[in-house]
Amino acid sequence: MPDERRQSILSIIDKYGEISLSELSSLFPDVSSMTIRRDLSELEARGSIIRTRGGALSVRKINASLPLHHVGEENEYSLRARENIVQKQIIAKKALPFVQKGRSIYFDAGSTIMELAEMVPNDNMTIITNGINVAQALVSNSNINVMIPAGTVNRNTLSVSGSDSFNFIDKINIDLAFMSASAFSAEAGFSVSNINEAELKRKVISRAKKVIMLLDNSKIGKDLLFTLADISDIHVLITDSPLPDELQKLADDFGVTVI
To answer: Alpha helices of the chain — where are they, by DSSP H?
Structure first.
C-alpha cells in the first residue's frame, strides 16, 4: 500500500538523515523510480523531508542538529525551507533562465535560492555563495566552480557573514547576483533581521553588474530591522504573484523588471 511504503521510506530517511533516489530504488525494487519520486513529493508536502538533487533529507534529523530558536533571529532554516515550497519553486523556475554559463555569479543564502541551486545546469560557470547548503548542492555539478567566503556561520540561516566575508567580496567582480530578503516594503525597502547579513548583502549588491531579487509574496508588505537595499538598487524582481499596486508603481518608476 502507498501509505505503508511512504512510512517505510520516511523511517529509512529519518534513520540515515539523507538518502539518494538510487538507494531508495534498490530498497524498493518492486516499484518504479517515478513512484518513489511521487512518494518523496508527498512526504515533502507533509513537511517530513526536504527534497534534494537526487534524494532527500530528514527534517527530523535537521531539527535535532540545530539549536533552539533565539528571539530576534530569523526562523531556523529547516522551518523556513518547508514554508511556501510551491511558491519558491515557481520563483526558482522563473529565475533559472537568468543563470548564464561563463559568468561570475553570486547566489545568496536562503531557501528560495536553494531551490534555484537545485535546478542549475552543469555548465561552465563560477558561483560564489555564502550559503553553506547552497554550496553543497552546487558542488555535485562537476563543471561549476564553487566559491564560498570565510566568516561566521549563522546556524539559523546556514549562511556565512562577517568581516572576512566582506573583505572577500571586495576582491571579486560579480556579473549576476541572485539575492534574497526576509521582507519588502515601500518604506523600508528589502530588509532582514541580522545586521551582518544585511551588510554582506549590501556589499554584494554594490559589486554586482546585475541584481536579481527573489522574493515570495509572504514577505511583501513587511519590514525587518536592517535594510539591505532599496528598489532602486536592483534590476529584476522575481516573485510568485502580482505586486500590490503601490509597489508595482515603485518598481516601474525605477525601471525594475517585475516577473
So the answer is: 2-16, 21-27, 33-45, 59-65, 77-81, 85-95, 111-119, 132-138, 163-170, 195-207, 245-253
Name which of 94, 117, 93 is nearest 105 in CA terms: 117
CA distance 51 to 71: 28
pLDDT tens across the length of the chain (259 residues): 788 899 999 988 888 788 888 888 888 888 998 999 999 988 888 888 888 777 888 887 666 654 444 434 444 554 555 556 778 888 999 999 999 999 999 999 988 898 899 899 999 999 999 998 899 889 888 899 999 988 888 777 778 888 888 889 999 999 999 999 999 999 999 999 888 889 999 999 999 999 999 999 889 999 999 999 999 999 999 998 899 999 999 999 999 999 9
Beta strand 208-214 pairing with 174-180? parallel
Query: Alpha-carbon torsion 194, 80, 110, 7, what sign?
Result: positive
The answer to whether the beta carbons of residues 172 and 195 sit under 8 Å apart is: no
